[in-house]
Amino acid sequence: MSELFASMLMIGATLTTGALVVAAAMGQAGLENAAASSGAAAAQYSAGVQLALIYLVVNPSSSCPVFAGYHEGTNLTFAIYDYGSQSFSPAVMALNGSEYFSAYAVVPAGGLGVFDLHLGACAHASGQTLLVADGRGSTAQFAS
Q: What fold does the segment set 48-143 form as a domain?
């Protein structure tokens, strides 16, 4: 009877120790994710530029095929809002890795900027990755 009781105590001790190790590992993973997120937010905040994508649309073109019931187009229009304390002067914009250089309008702090990209091929609004960057090193990436 004492061997059975000792075995039950050892199994309980093993399960308790294992649960503590798993809980500690999960807590550490959560802390690392929170630290990375806070670091990115702090970097953007310290730059004074905080951007949000308001909308991204592709103007339909009759020369492009239909995707999910909508005509694709070769002209993409999007709006960015800067809710930071400094204005944002885009120097380059990249859509799915294709870079577009131009003299873009400045997005004032607390203001909205609307931009047009003339694409080389037909595209649709969903599934796009947009990267905007200025000359000071501030960047933001958005997905539609």
A: Immunoglobulin-like (2.60.40)
